[in-house]
Write a structure and sequence with these properties.
InterPro entries: Epimerase_deHydtase, Lipid_A_modif_metabolic_enz, NAD(P)-bd_dom_sf. It contains ten helices and 13 strands. It is of the alpha/beta class. It has a domain of 224 residues: NAD(P)-binding Rossmann-like Domain (Rossmann fold). Strands 3-2-1-4-5-6-11 form a seven-stranded parallel sheet, sandwiched between helices. It has a two-stranded parallel ribbon with strand order 7-10. Strands 8-13 form a two-stranded parallel sheet. Helix 1 crosses helix 6 and helix 8 crosses helix 10. The longest helix has 21 residues.
């Protein structure tokens, strides 16, 4: 296509995941060369404006990262190793998880350093709001440094974020981290891509099973639809000079307790099944529960919005309805919701 020969090359690592699929869909609308790298087959958006190249790669293979990012003007790093009963659960001492979550970032930095570009490539990284050092300690952990409350997964994310910050200070990359709030699918993508709590509870509700909360479900979360999260990355690329060197909180700015969230999911599903909403019940925490489950993880800074002009477009109620419709196999009916 005209213009593609000189268009910037943007590489998405982790393009086969939920966030990677959404980011790829956004970038495919642009006049760029787009390299989509995934462990599984990637979903190429239909009728892309971008010139799209697909690569199915095991990035832990020696030399694979250097091959994947070669010649890139920008790298969007969305790769993460997750395990256990939730996407944030990673066992201490999990060598593979550390290799993927931290080691691959060092590989990217090393590969970009070796290219010795006159203008460093952009490097955007997906972090988590729960990394924020401003997260208050739980009452039972008074006097404990907030970082000690982070999960292993979050500690991996924080180590990778710091490596990018160091490389940025050295002039190797122009890096930034987007610390994302709790993400959920809008039902656009394959259901098995979303392993998060919102999708899991939606599937339970469609199956007629009660939704269970721990500790009364009082912990608050900031919920962000996956498409809005994807647009945050394109907004960061557009405002790269402003965001370079920072770790930016990205969320809706709305605080919703876990109990309120689950009740809203139950109502959304009921609108599409025609059945009464499934109950939301308080239960004993599971064996894999963590102290951080009782903490509030919500947006505390609107600085990213101020710098980039990004703002979320999908209200939580609409997003939950779209997801419920997709899981229940019904058309979304977000207009005129009355319950």
């Amino acid at each position: 296509m005209p213009g593609h020969a000189t268009a910037p090359l943007i590489t998405v690592l982790g393009a086969s995941g939920l966030l990677g699929t959404a980011v790829s869909r956004e970038l495919a609308r642009r006049n760029v060369r787009l390299r989509l790298v995934g462990r599984r087959a990637v979903a190429v958006p239909p009728r892309p404006v971008a010139l799209v190249e697909e690569r199915r790669v095991d990035l832990t293979r020696p030399g694979a990262v250097a091959e994947a990012v070669a010649g890139s003007d920008a790298v969007v790093h969305l790769v993460a190793h997750i395990s256990g009963a939730g996407t944030w659960r990673v066992a201490d001492g999990d060598a593979l998880a550390e290799r993927v979550n931290v080691g691959l970032v060092h590989d990217v930095i090393g590969a970009l350093r070796a290219e010795r570009r006159e203008r460093p490539a952009a490097l955007l990284f997906s972090g988590s709001l729960s990394q924020s050092a401003s997260v208050p300690a739980a009452p039972a952990a008074a006097g404990v440094h907030p970082e000690s409350l982070l999960t292993t997964y979050d500690r991996h994310k924080l180590a990778a974020e710091r490596a990018i910050a160091d490389a940025t200070a050295q002039g190797v990359v122009r890096g930034a981290t987007l610390r994302l709030s709790t993400l959920y699918s809008l039902g656009t993508d394959a259901p098995d891509l979303d392993r998060g709590v919102v999708a899991a509870m939606t599937r339970r509700a469609v199956a007629g099973q009660p939704l269970t909360v721990w500790h009364g479900g009082t912990a608050k979360r900031d919920l962000l639809g996956i498409d809005d999260a994807a647009r945050a990355f394109t907004s960061a690329l557009d405002a790269l000079d402003a965001v370079t060197g920072g770790a930016w909180e990205v969320g809706s700015g709305e605080q919703t307790s876990v109990a309120e969230l689950f009740q809203a999911i139950a109502r959304a599903v009921a609108r599409h099944t025609g059945l009464p909403p499934v109950p939301v019940v308080d239960t004993v925490p599971a064996d894999f529960a963590l102290p951080t489950d009782q903490l509030d993880f919500v947006l505390r800074s609107a600085r990213f919005r101020e710098l980039t002009g990004w703002t979320p477009r999908v209200p939580l109620r609409e997003g939950l309805d779209r997801l419920a419709a997709a899981v229940a196999g019904q058309p979304a009916a977000v207009a005129g919701l009355d319950s």
